[in-house]
Every structure is written in structure tokens, then in C-alpha cells.
Amino acid sequence: MMQRIADWFESRIGYRKHFDVLRSRVLPAGPSWGLTSAACLFWLFVIEGLTGLLLMATYSPSMTNAWASVHFIDQSDAGRFLRGVHHYTAQALIILLVLHVARVLVTAAYRAPRELVWATGLLLIPLMVIWTVTGNPLAGGQRGIAQIEVEGNIIGSLPVIGPVLQRLLIGGADVGNLTLTHLYFLHVGLLPLLVGLLLGVHLHQVHRHSVYRSRSLPTPNEPEVPPTPYWPYQTVRNQLALAILVGVIAWLAWSPGAPLDAPADPDLAGSPRPEWYFRWLLELRQHFTGEREFIATMVVPAAILAFFLLVPLLDRRLPRRAGTVFRTGVLVLSMAGWGWLTWQSFQRDWADPEYAASLARSREIAVRARQLADAHPVGVRGAGLLLKQDPKTRGPLLFARHCAACHSHLDPQGQGIAAKEASAPNLYGFGAAVWIEQLLDPDRIVDPQVFGVSDRLRNGDMTGAIQKLFEDAGEEGAAALRDDLRRVALALAAEAQRGEPDAQAVGDIARGRELLTSTLGCTDCHHFGDAGDLGSAPDLTGYGSRDWLIGIIGNPAGGRFYPGDLNDRMPAFAADPAHPALNLLTPADLNLLVSWLRGEWYEPPNSTGAAPSQSSSSLVRH
Amino acid sequence: MNRRTLLEWASRGLGALVAAVIGLPGVQYVRGTLQQAQEPSATFRRVARLRDLPLGRPLQVPILGELRDAWTVELNQVVGRVWLVRNAAESAAGSDAAPAIVSAFTTVCPHMGCQVQLQGDAASFICPCHRAAFGLDGARVEDAGSGERNHAPRGLDSLECRVVQDAGSGESWVEVLYQRFEAGLAQKVPT
């Protein structure tokens, strides 16, 4: 039955002769491991195409959807694996193409009539590189988007046609939705066509002027010994090499997986670098600055490509011995040059602590973005908001920009944000009992991280009042006073309303509240509940709560905090609630900053990340 | 087995191995889309005040909820529509003592999933795509006067529905358990 169907098609198509040609191929020089590169390349192209097709079924090219759809693919093990295979197969194709071409160069297999085999094979290298370049930004990640911006500008630096090409690629002046759809068109439409065409010509030429001559073709100088058939003696080598390659690719795809940066966001810009295969160009341009830069980025690569294309013609004019020297020289020089420049470029980065910090930061926010997207689906406005609305990510940026002129935010190990010129207390753990206790201790209040930070605070009423309390208590009363003040600290920390206090602390808190308004005399200056008056010191009611923090940051000179001259130099960041546009901080940013100061942000369950110690209600998200 | 046969089988085996490493995850990836189930809503949702429902005349109300779409989610979106029919047989005098009888039908036609509309005379539902007609009780109507055959495999899908009195305001509300069903089947199968 199957035979009859096959015959029916055979009589109409005549496909068998094409398979017979493949089946009857012979190797005059016998099978070799060197020849495996061709078959491996072919099958890797097939794998790349198939995994790409599968990914196309889910991926969505737009600035709002790209990152989220790629993350969606990564959420299933199979999707993550296929994307990894697609990513690492592209790298493998570039390396293998270069090795393949190098083999042809060394063996001078490009000689007439095989010049077109050489040319098409050679051109596949830049085409393959461009193909991966159009793929890298498709995820809408930080690095990929920064890369395409730079690559667009490199194209734009070409004289005359550069700016036009750049606009066509980017789809306007700025990277956006059109950039991704254009890249997608190039990546899954135009480039596969071009590569397919080139590959078709290449394979046709290989077949026509084959190293593996077919038995059916009469060849001159037929050797005496019957040549080895291709199948299975070469095939088994091909398959083994391919299996090893795919094994390595599969391991890479599974274990580190394809990278996925944080969604592109100019606020979180890192120090993006090109992919490894462009490192030599990055290094080369160190030597061509300003207007001449396009020599490094465009002229040199084009000249090198042209030279290699002409190698068969140059080689023909050389005597036999000189030809060998020439070919070996070209290979060694180009590999050494490429290797040296690449090494130099990486060396430069490894020696740069700022780059290392920026790289670490990029990785950190990439992990963070995935954590947030795992916990909650992305909103319709895109994945960019994940980090924009995350207190853990935005808080330090806002603090550094608006607060760190005077305040530090340093943990006990000294890690965090240091003030440019400290003149106000370190706000790490602000409002927690530990933080408040520092103010209620005559020795610690004068610490440079606390009120010792400025003369005004060191000699201020608060410092004086605490010192006076301890003077009055004397040595015998100091221990009891400390115990009372510990209760006061607990009572004030409870005002911040960061989750439920410990059951054991409830009694201490109640006692602390009594002490505040009675014997300790806090309410002589401060207002607390019904006691004391506003106007001479900050309100202790709701101390450190969200509302209190929004109030003091919004307007520290307001009645509840430091009215009039009491305010040191702290600006009002949101003085006019009715007109948020006029304020230094938008309501959203103010909320993010306050959430961060209070240690309220989402942490995934079982994470060992820097979960804020003072917070029990970390599952907060806006 | 001679060397040649061994090598032939080795070639085939290695080829199959490579195909499996790429192919099996590929199949799993495609299957993932099939396994993506719509989460059934387990809660009754308030859709209308009872007093807003006219006797005997169907009223269409939207179902609001979390709209999940692959990698995005949006709150408070229309996730479905429901026809509410307050039984005309209820006391015409409008005595509140009589228990209100309200039935709810999804607006999705059981034939091909178009949005079923109300006929001009408000006496039946009709699907604009292939003229499937349904009575106000949801049952198929064989000839709605259009002269066309009714293509619907079953009647309009009824939804669980109840009338509850709000403890605070004393207002009576209609609550519906919204569900979707497979189109094209004679039986009602939840998706």
C-alpha cells in the first residue's frame, strides 16, 4: 500500500533521483571529522528555524507586550528550554560557520570552480551575525534595547545614507513599537529569506562541484581503490558531532537558560555592552574617535569582508608554497587579531569596578522583574511598570536623588546609600524600635549617624532632654530609666503600624504610652494622643506611619512637624497636594519612597533576599 | 551484524536522539497552550437590583471581573454578558411577598458563540449570525418566522442565579454564577 502511494508520487514528481544522489555520494579521501561541520551547520539551521517557528506562536512584538510574552514563554519549562536552544544555537552557528570557513581556507577548497561556494559561505557569517542582532532586542530587555539604540546610531554614522537607514530600522527617531516590529520583520521574514537563498546557492554549488562526488557522475582520474560511501561512514561522524553539539546547547539552554533582562527602562539604565562577537569592534573604535568612528564600525569590517571574498583570486596568483604561507598567515593573523581585540575589550571591563557594579545591578533588577512578574501577571500597560511601581527598586533611586544630600541610608554593616554631606540622621530602619532607641540613649544620640551629625541637632533640645533625664536619674536610677525608655521606643514603634506587634510586647507598649505622657515628660515638647501641643517638636502620634511620613516629606515645616524656624534645611517635597505637578515628588513617587523607608515591598515566599527585618507586612504591592 | 549495519543504526539512533531532544519539548510547549484552562469563577456576583428588572422583558447586564489574557491581567473588565429574565407570571400587582423568579442565560449562542440578541418584540432571543432562535425560557424555537432552520444544538445556557436581600440596605439583588460552555454540543459542558 505504502509502496503504491510512493510510486504514485514518484511517477508524478520524480523525487527518488534526488535522494539517490545523496545516498550514492562517495568520499574519495574517506570520511573525516573535519567534514562534519557542514552537516552540523545544516542541522543547526534547521533547529534554529524550528525553535524560532515555535517561539513565534507565543511572542508578541511591541514595547508593552514583548517582555511579558517572553517571560510568559519562560514560565513553562518547555518554553524556557526552546528559547534557550534558540539562543545558544545562534551562538553555535556563528562559531561553527567561522570554523567551517577556516577549514575551507586552510585546505584551499575555494579554488576554481568553487569560488561561489566560498563567497556564499563567507557571506553567511555577517548575515548570521545580523540575524542574531535583530533577535537580541526582541525580548524588550534592558540590554537588547540599549544595543539596538547603539547599533542604530552606528548605522546612522555612515555618510549620506546612514541617517535614512537608521530611521528605517528604528521606525522614527526613538526606539519603540515600530523598532520591535521592524526587527521582527527582519528576524522572521527578510533575513530567513536571504539566508535561505544564500544557503540554497551554497548547497547547490557544493553539490555541483562536490568534494563528495556522486558515483553516477563520471569523474576524471577515477581512483583505483573504491571510494568510501558517504552513508553511513561519514553520516555517523556527522551525527555524533551533531549529538555532542546539541547536547552542549541543550545543557546551556536548560542550566543557565537564555538571558532575560529587566524590561527596558531609561531610569534603570546600566552599562550595556555588545554581544561577544562584536567586542572586537567595540575595542577597535577606541582608536577611532569622533567623526572617524565609522571607520572602525563600518569601513574596517567591510574591508575585511571584501579581502576575504577576494582570497580565491589572490591565492591563484601565488606559487604553490607561497599560497600555503599566505593562507595560513591570513588565518592566523585574523584569528589572533580578533582574539586580541576581544580579550582587550573584556580586560577593560574586568578591570573596571564601576562596570562590575553596574552589571551586578542589572542582574539584580532582572531577577527582581521576574520575581514580580511571577507573582502577578503584567498589567495591560506593559512590563515596564513592574519595576516602576516596585518600592524595592524605585525607593533607593528616589532616596539617592532627593534625600541623600543630607540623609544616609546605611545598614549596621555600612552598606547602602551614604549622604553626600551628612547633616541629618541615617534613616535606615527609621521608625523601628531599634532606630528610636538610639535617640533615647545619651551616648548613642550623639553618634554621627544619629543626632551627632550636625551641631544643631547635637546641641538641640532633644539631646539636652535625654541627657537631663539620665543626669536626674543618677547612676542608681539609670538601669530603670533605660528599661522605661525601651518601653517608650516600643510604644513609638507601634505607632508606625507595621503589622501586629509581638504578644509579649503589648504590655510594654501600653506602659510606654503612659510613660510618654507622664513621668518622662516627652509631651512637654511633643504632642502625643491627647497630651502635649504641636508646634515645638514633631508629633509622636502615628510616628513613622505611612500618613506621618507622607506628611513630613511633603511638608516638614507643616504644623505637625517642624513649623517655622524649627525646620533645618529640609525642602517640602509635596507642599501643594492640590497641584501634584508643581511638587518635587509626584504622589506615586512619594508613596514608593515611603513604602521603601517602611520596608514594605513584595518578597517571594522562601526568598533569602534582603527582606526588611523591621517589616512583618512585606506583602505590599501597589 | 557487520560494521556497516552497526554504523547505519548508530546514525539513525543519534538522529532520533537529537530529534527527541528538540521535538519532545516542542510538543510539550504546544500542549501547554491546550492545558491553559480558564479558571472557573466560584463566586456569585451581584449583577442587578431586582427592582430594575422589568417583568417579562429580558435585561442584559455585564459581568465584571479580572480579565486575564495570557500574560496580561486587567481588573474590572467586562468578562461576559448575561440575559436576566424576570418571570412575567410573578404577581402582576408587584406584591413583594411573592418570591421573585429570575432566570439568567449567558448571551453566548450555543451554536457558534455569537452574542444572542433580543428580538424586536422582546418575545424571544435571536442569534444574529445564523438566526438561531430561543424562547424567553431559553429553549430552542424551531421556527421563529424567519423560515430558516434553527442551527443551535441546544437551548441557551442557563446560569445559576439567586435573589438575595442586602443586610444593610434591605435592597434585593440578583446574583449570578457566571460560567462559559462549549459551543456546538448537544450537552452543556463547562469550558
Mean pLDDT of chain B: 86
**Tally of helical runs of chain A:** 22
Shape of chain A: elongated
- List low-confidence stretches of chain A: 214-218, 609-622
- What general outline of chain B do the C-alpha atoms trace? elongated
Largest sheet of chain A: 2 strands, antiparallel
- Quaternary organisation of the protein chains: heterodimer
- Indicate the mean pLDDT of chain A: 89
Sheet-strand content of chain B, in percent, reads 25-35%
Report on this structure.
- The complex is a heterodimer of chains A (622) and B (191).
- By secondary structure, chain A is an all-alpha fold.
- Chain A has 22 helices and five strands.
- Chain A has a two-stranded antiparallel ribbon. Chain A has a two-stranded antiparallel sheet with strand order 4-5.
- In chain A, helix 5 packs antiparallel against helix 6, helix 16 (391-402) crosses helix 22 and helix 17 (433-439) runs antiparallel to helix 19.
- The two termini of chain A are 66 Å apart.
- In chain B, the strands form two sheets. A six-stranded antiparallel beta sheet of chain B has the order 1-10-9-4-3-2, with no helix packed on it. In chain B, strands 5-6-7-8 form a four-stranded antiparallel beta sheet, with no helix packed on it.
- Chain B is 17% helix and 31% strand.
- Chain B has 191 residues and is α+β, with helices and mostly antiparallel strands.
- Classes of the chains: A mainly alpha (622), B alpha+beta (191).
- The interface between A and B is medium-sized, with 37 and 24 residues.
- Strand 3 of chain A pairs parallel with strand 3 of chain B.
Short description:
The complex is a heterodimer of chains A (622) and B (191). Chain A has 622 residues and is an all-alpha fold.
